[in-house]
Design a protein that fits this description.
49% helix; SH3 type barrels; 10 helices; 3 domains; 10 strands; 302 residues; 5-stranded antiparallel sheet; Alpha-Beta Plaits; 3-stranded antiparallel sheet; alpha+beta
């Protein structure tokens, strides 16, 4: 029993030993453990609260999932800021005594943590301005996929291959971002088609419109259209323009489906799709001309 009491007294003295003193404030090992535990609980519980607010509390009131997640994330950040101030006060830390440490941290942020701060500020800008939101189909820096989560430092994007890509938030502020669903989920697609010069152009137009009308993912309104783009070396270039809302996240699947329909229609009606050709003309008499220029043995001896 005496040994246990001795161990407890030793542990208490070790935990109460000051590690850092700033003014009248003393930072002990017990204070550090207390802060780490409470900060962990604050981050964990605020994350759970964000999910609860976005997925349950606001589901029946706000239909847009992007707005729900943005409001829940802002609420979480407010809780973290207020909770941090309360934790520091309950730990006996005088915030006015942290001016020196704040200055040192500011220097560190300016040099080593500038990317982290930049991404965090970009995350706040994204949440307030909402250039992208959860559920959007985006392209940025060669990354294409659906936005599934916007966090303080990064945004999670899932591709069609079910690959998760973590994109720093600063890229959405500093780079050009293609947002396929920013102004709505009705998007126009263009399908280029080349036919031979012998083709009936009005028949080509009619067949392309038939392919669009038979595809269930193509909208009737706005109506599909066909444009005669230009005369090319190998054929006539047309463009089928259609609108869709169902496959904007799988545009290659829609283009493939239309291409299958186009090739089948063209083959049924004898419409030829040209391929690059090269005409080679051989001039007769070239051999004789070259032979005449070669020196004879008698001329070579001279």
């Amino acid at each position: 029993m005496e040994i246990l009491r001795h161990i407890l007294n030793y542990a208490k003295s070790a935990l109460s030993a000051p590690l850092l003193k700033v003014g009248s404030m003393q930072l002990t090992l017990w204070t550090i453990i207390y802060l780490l535990v409470l900060f962990f609980l604050l981050i964990y519980l605020s994350g759970k609260l964000r999910n609860l607010v976005a997925e349950r509390l606001l589901t029946g009131k706000i239909a847009d999932i992007g707005i729900r997640h943005a409001m829940a994330s802002i609420l979480r950040y407010l809780i973290i800021v207020i909770g941090t101030l309360i934790i520091l006060q309950t730990a006996g830390i005088d915030l006015t005594a942290l001016n020196v440490l704040a200055g040192a941290v500011g220097i560190g942020v300016g040099f080593g943590l500038q990317n982290i701060v930049s991404n965090f500020i970009s995350g706040l800008i994204i949440l307030f301005e909402r250039p992208i939101k959860v559920g959007d189909r985006i392209e940025v820096g060669g990354v294409e996929g659906d936005v599934v989560r916007i966090k303080g430092r990064s945004t999670t994007v899932v591709t069609n291959d079910n690959i998760t890509i973590i994109v720093p938030n600063s890229r959405f502020i500093t780079e050009n971002v293609v947002n396929w669903s920013h102004s709505g989920r009705t998007v126009r697609f263009r399908v280029p088609v080349s036919v031979s010069y012998d083709s009936d152009v009005r028949l080509v137009e009619r067949l392309l419109l038939e392919v669009a009308a038979e595809n269930p993912d193509v909208l009737e309104r706005p109506a599909p259209g066909v444009r005669f783009i230009e005369f090319r070396e190998n054929g006539l270039l047309f463009e089928l323009r259609i609108w869709s809302t169902t496959l904007i996240q799988k545009k290659r699947l829609l283009i493939s489906s239309l291409n299958f329909g186009i090739i089948e229609k063209f083959r049924q009606h004898g419409i030829e799709i040209p391929f690059p050709q090269l005409d080679l003309h051989v001039r007769r008499g070239l051999r004789k001309t070259v032979a005449a220029e070669e020196p004879t043995p008698e001329k070579a001896d001279e």
